Amino acid sequence: MDPVTLAVLNARFTAIVEEMGEALLRTAYSQILNSSRDFSIAVTDGQCRLVAQADHIPVHVGAMPFAARAVVDRFGDAMKPGDVYLLNDPWHGGSHLPDLTIVLPIFGEGSLRFLAVVRAHHSDIGGATHGGYNPGATEIWQEGLRIPPILLGEGGEMRPDLVDMLALNTRINRDFRGDLAAMLGAAKLGALRLGALLDQHGATALMGAVDAILDLAHAHAARIVESWPDGTWTGEAFLDDDGHGAENIAIRATCTKRGGTLTVDLSASDDQVRGFVNSSHPNMVSACCMGFAYLLDPEVAKNEGAFRALRVVAREGSVVWAREGAAVTLCTSHCSNEIVEAIMRAMQGCCPERVMGGWGRRFRIAITGEDARRPQADGKGRRFVWHLFHARPGGGGHAKGDGWSTAGEWHSAGGLKFGSVEMAEARFPLHFRRHEFLPGSAGEGQHRGGLGALLDLVVESDGPARANTAGDGARHGSAGLHSGQDSAPHRYVLRHADGTERVLRTKEVGVVIQPGEVIEVRSAGGGGWGDPAQRDPHAVEADRAEGLL
Length: 549
Fold this sequence. Notes:
Distance between the termini: 55 Å
Structural class: alpha+beta
Enzyme class: hydrolase
Pfam families: Hydantoinase_B
GO molecular function: 5-oxoprolinase (ATP-hydrolyzing) activity; N-methylhydantoinase (ATP-hydrolyzing) activity
Low-confidence stretches: none
Protein name: N-methylhydantoinase B
InterPro entries: Hydantoinase_B, Oxoprolinase-like
Shape: globular
Strand content: 15-25%
Helix content: 25-40%
Number of strands: 19
């Protein structure tokens, strides 16, 4: 096939996954999807090779081919057009339980040609605590409902009895049903568009084009890697703790570059721990793909072909690849961020102009309570579950400039949004008293990190609310690289009515919040890149004039 047609088809695959994402965004029920955009879309071919992804949540995408593979391995020749498959289990194609994945097969000329894959983070997935994250968990059965690959429905529809069973195991039934329906709608849209593409070009020609697109992406990525010096470098990053006594948990990366291939070996990382910072295998591989992708040019297609230039080695039983049954829910944030940080620390010795300072770490709060503004038949306020996506940390500085302020974490790279403050106040009993940049929070460097945020959030629930925290970074700030400085760490405080404060730990269950109390968030900035002494004096003065220092 000629290069122009290949370029058009590659763009067409990308357009399909982007359109699927827009459909999900516009039809989802929960704020975690329709405001914060915590979902991702991918298309694989019949061999479960990643063909295209949309720019959503980077840590999702490298794991999504595992979901496609799990469905094909489980159902194989029994798969047929119109089947709807669902999973979330980390040892059966998922990465962590809150991320549900719908997979739809697309056939052409009698054979499986593509799979439309939609992954979305749900507001609740049952388990011992609200909101999908249980800092007290020491095994996966305490974290929520496990779903191996199942046939959720046929003929493009879901079985009502299965949906009833799943929804009954979550706390926010309406949002769960609405979000699941939105996921199916997005997947069906992808199946429709891919079916039309197969009809237009024919299966043989189109699959030949997929092979060529993947080969070209591999050649592109390999050329970049070949331009780096051969050698071996090491880097490490540390998790604060696991919430159960383990502290300063080490992620160690040994990166070896030979020719057009980069090998990332995480085998020296610490053993798995009791708490939920352990990583599932798909999530670990995805985190390595994410770190590798950040070292490539933005024009490289992020598909299976590009990732052929990466080889991942790890040790089962380590914190980056926990054995089945371990608690793993926090893994898409932590230890994903630390895997990327360890890779970047290593690769600053190989290609310092391509690494960037650390992005801030995730520190989530999930609040549940009753909203008196929405009374129910029993006279009580409607129950709500709200996830803190606001006050995001800063991104890291890099060779071309300063980091983005409040951009988020490495695992999302700006893909997660904090959404409208006004919309959050309208939908939940919350008042955002302040929400602004936090001066001095960034790591200094030739190019400084982006700033973190200052948030004062008043909880106005009907009676006491309860909160769980899930995150990291209250001890370790964002990494400064290539002689740049680390950022300040997080500091989250619950301010009581009498003015006293309670410092919130990153992994707590059942924090009681009385009406009118204030959550004061001071989130980390990004790490700096380069020697601070080399910073342009005009940039320093500009920061000073804007009140950022």
